[in-house]
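Dear colleagues,

As part of the handover before I leave the project, I'm documenting each prediction I ran so the next person doesn't have to rerun anything. This entry is a single chain, and its sequence is reproduced below.
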Amino acid sequence: MIFKLTSKNRLIHVTTWTICVLYFFISYFLLWWDCRPKAVTPYEPIIGSLSITICCYLIYSTLQYYLPRKNQYLKITLICLVLTVMSVGLSIFFLNQFFDDFSLTHFYEVLPYRFIINFLLLLCVIIINIFWNIQEEYEENKRRKDESERILRDAELYNLRQQLQPHFLFNSLNSIIALIGIKPDEARNMTFQLSDFLRGTMRKDDKQLIPLTDEIAHLKLYLDIEKVRFGHRLTTTFGLQEEAKQAKVPSMIIQPLLENAIKFGLYNVVGDVEITIHITWTNYMLYITITNPFDTDQFETKKGTGFGLTSIQRRLFLLYSRTDLLETSIKDNIFTSTIKIPQYD
């Protein structure tokens, strides 16, 4: 804001004194042209240019924040007429007080033309000043709107993340309760793992984008907890392209996909299940693909994408303003989810 005001003040001074100099030279040239070959004095052009300069400063000072409403054009015209009369009156006053009769006589001869020129010039200055104020008001409103949208977006993102954590926490606590009686050691290990997982989650609360390697380390904690729940039935395979390690991703963006894969891949399904995670980098786009088998009957009873996938799609839209960054597909009892995350320099 300080820079803007400083720039505007500088522009006001430059334009005002530019008008002053141009007005003087044009007036002096016209005076010389009318009176040649008789010698002329610069008094009349100096007084006229200084008068118009004073009026320009009055315009900038009085209309600095003025934004006309509809049907107020007459008011602008009246302001311009008053300032034009003032500029002409100042010239007549100073010529009468301090300078020769020749300058005053010539001034009266060209008074109608000078009045019209001063009026048009001051009207242009007023219009430029008003347009400048309109532009500043537009930029300020846009800045406030963008700031409000950013605050709302951050609040919604935070709310989505806070909903994800209890969703996983309740499942883990239920599993710990189930293990306490039959496998107390595994229940204790799962409690420690859950503690480490939640501690890592809390550290990420203030970070929107994190390195992919940090996200993978966090996912491994999550998978360790799930492997305690499901034992040997759950197998996971990671495929990570070397170039992808430099990528950054929204924190906890992959976990809901894994949770969805485990939900449909292991719940009510007999036998071992393998979930694969492939992460690749192509043309500044990070691709995260998760596949899991599922039972067709069990899948049909749980229609919809579920809260996890819906929350991912919403978060990606809020972060990147795109709706094509999450894709799901089904082929031969294999469910595939793919996240695309743009990587900017």
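DSSP finds ten helices and seven strands in the chain. The chain has two domains: 2-144, 183-342.

All the best with the project,
I.
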